[in-house]
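Morning run. Coffee first, then this:
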Amino acid sequence: MFLTAQKYPQLVRLSYELRLDILNLIYSSGGGHIGGSLSSLDLIIATYFSDIFKNNHFVLSAGHICPALYVTLAKKGYFPKSKLNTYTELGSILQGHVSTDVPGVEYSSGALGQGLSFSCGLALGDRNHQTVCLTSDGEHQEGQVWEAAMFANKYKLGNLINIVDHNKYQIDGSVADIMPLDDLAAKYIRFGWTVTVIDGHDFNQICSAFEKARDSDYPNCIIANTILGKGIPTMQYDYHYHDVKALPETIYHRAKADFESIIKKMDPTYDFTA
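And here it is:
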């Protein structure tokens, strides 16, 4: 469908499985931030399931794309998968922005732009481990991001990795139209960071960038070019799917059938009821 043969077949399969989980979560709950969840999912999968990083800190700065983190944490065993069915329900720990009530989560997100600052503190306080922060491109319109970028350079936080989910859209339209970021890589380089630009849906490139970042003496920025709504053609490149109030039946059933067909080809014994 969109991922070809790679060195990481287990991550490719997870990509389809967890896209199906996101789809079901958004559909059953009656809405949610699906566009960015689908664009960022492969980056989160690689962070949690590749062999490159172990015992790291992970900060989701763009907290509204929490469906991608929730399905990953459930797959990783932090809580039962059945709990995904409680997404946004009153009293559920799985709300529309991630919080530390969720097992495995160290940062409660709120206003955009603050996660990188929090990550700087983690990286400074624990230099024996990597701190990985996932930011959106749109939140780079917030000044606090650039204050954090200066801080990371000053304190030589070589154990800090900022992954930018560069899907080029935000809630009201394209990032380029609302507040252009221009050459984001050049900005980070000017701030003293090591920068790698990758295809954010290619696990070969993602894991290679992680490997490079792990051995850096400077703070690392991985600019991952991604596609809003990746995997569901109707949604791709359409900012109206930044979030949905209710997922249309036709889109849901078509996407569900597509994902299930691909998963079944990869593993004929896969149990969709588990």
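The radius of gyration is 18 Å. Good start to the day.
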